[in-house]
């Protein structure tokens, strides 16, 4: 079968590889839709970042070249020995996280920060930019018939957003601010919209993404290129507490502004992957006792919550999909375009 494999920065290839078959505890999925993630583009432009190059990944035993694709949904076509929970014919979305189950974070339930953390379609073990993929039964989440495969392919980043919102510990009546209305930022907005918050402010300069932010639940969208973000947020909140801000932008000044506008005992949640560092003065956290948190991926419970959210917000989530392309076009119309061309895409799906 044809599959997209990563060799290194600016080097991905559609190769012919053997069709995978499920071993014990594994399931085989006919891929129906797979999303191109921002992390895929970072890996393509600036990698290797997370892909194992110098040595095999400890959980997969693989190193480059590896098959890419970690956001996907499909139909189960075969199961390996010992599989009990998942059956042939079910539609599943894949939890891409790989964890050891033995290190201290795993034993306390924080599998998303496993000391050997990896991701299917990033760290080896298969990938979804292909007609078929094989995953562990524990990584498969059955999705209801009401959720289309295209929306099912969004559940992996949605679970990431859900995990980040849980970390914020918001309360009804709080204000909140989301920097960046790309896929993760939009999904954070969708999750926040169900929480009874006083206001949900998005900071986004792109017109199409700003419109998407409103559809996903933002009560106000601020253009940082034409408005003073700090002043506008102060006007909107009227002295009320910004309980949390989320940086999904990794823009030059987004983290500094997020810290400045977050209220007493509020939390700044960084979800963005930064290609380069920024200067940061920790004193800015002191006088309001603001805390800064990194948020990585999700747990299995977060993924279950993503399935439940999608069942009620499927139309909103589907609105984030701006293009669907064939696997044969994934390099030119997918990776090259998203990495190097000016575009207004939000989420691009690949159909094998």
From TrEMBL:
Keywords tagged on the record: Metal-binding, Oxidoreductase, Plasmid, Zinc
Return the PANTHER family for the record. Answer: (R,R)-BUTANEDIOL DEHYDROGENASE-RELATED (PTHR43161:SF23), SORBITOL DEHYDROGENASE (PTHR43161)
Q: What name is this protein filed under?
A: Enoyl reductase (ER) domain-containing protein
Which cofactor does the UniProt annotation name? Zn(2+)
Give one GO term, molecular function aspect: zinc ion binding
Family (UniProt): Belongs to the zinc-containing alcohol dehydrogenase family.
Q: Which Pfam families match?
A: ADH_N (PF08240), ADH_zinc_N (PF00107)
InterPro entries assigned to the protein according to its UniProt record, in alphabetical order = ADH-like_C (IPR013149), ADH-like_N (IPR013154), ADH_Zn_CS (IPR002328), ER (IPR020843), GroES-like_sf (IPR011032), NAD(P)-bd_dom_sf (IPR036291)
Residues in Enoyl reductase (ER) domain copies: 8-350
Top-level taxon in the UniProt lineage:
Bacteria
Respond yes or no to whether keyword Cell membrane is given for this record. no
Listed under GO cellular component are: cytoplasm
Picking any one GO biological process from the record gives: butanediol biosynthetic process
**Keyword field contains Membrane:** no
């Amino acid at each position: 079968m044809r599959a997209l494999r990563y060799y290194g920065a600016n080097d991905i290839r559609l190769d012919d590889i053997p069709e995978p078959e499920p071993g014990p505890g594994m399931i085989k999925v006919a891929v129906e839709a797979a999303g191109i993630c921002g992390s895929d583009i970072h890996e393509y432009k600036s990698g290797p970042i997370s892909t194992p190059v110098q040595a095999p990944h400890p959980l997969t035993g693989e190193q480059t070249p590896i098959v890419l694709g970690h956001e996907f949904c499909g139909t189960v076509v075969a199961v390996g020995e010992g599989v009990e929970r998942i059956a042939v014919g079910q539609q599943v979305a894949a939890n891409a996280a790989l964890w050891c189950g033995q290190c201290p974070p795993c034993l306390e339930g924080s599998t998303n920060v496993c000391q050997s953390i990896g991701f299917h379609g990033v760290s080896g073990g298969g990938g979804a930019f292909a007609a078929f993929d094989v995953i562990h039964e524990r990584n498969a989440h059955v999705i209801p018939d009401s959720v289309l495969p295209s929306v099912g392919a969004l559940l992996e980043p949605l679970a990431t957003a859900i995990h980040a919102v849980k970390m914020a510990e918001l309360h009804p009546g709080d204000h909140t601010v989301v920097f960046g209305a790309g896929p993760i930022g939009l999904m954070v907005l969708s999750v926040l919209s169900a929480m009874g918050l006083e206001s949900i402010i998005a900071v986004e300069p792109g017109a199409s993404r700003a419109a998407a932010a409103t559809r996903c639940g933002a009560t106000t969208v601020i253009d940082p290129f034409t408005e003073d973000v700090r002043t506008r947020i102060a006007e909107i909140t009227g002295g009320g507490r910004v309980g949390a801000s989320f940086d999904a932008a990794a823009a030059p000044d987004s983290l500094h502004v997020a810290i400045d506008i977050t209220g007493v005992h509020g939390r700044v949640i960084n979800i963005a992957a930064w290609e380069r560092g920024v200067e940061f003065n920790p004193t800015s956290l002191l006088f309001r006792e603001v805390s800064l948190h990194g948020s990585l991926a999700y747990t299995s419970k977060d993924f279950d919550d993503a399935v439940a959210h999608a069942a009620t917000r499927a139309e909103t989530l589907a609105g984030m999909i701006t293009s669907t392309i064939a696997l044969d076009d994934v390099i030119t119309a997918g990776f090259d375009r998203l990495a190097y061309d000016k575009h207004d895409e939000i989420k691009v799906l690949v159909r094998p």
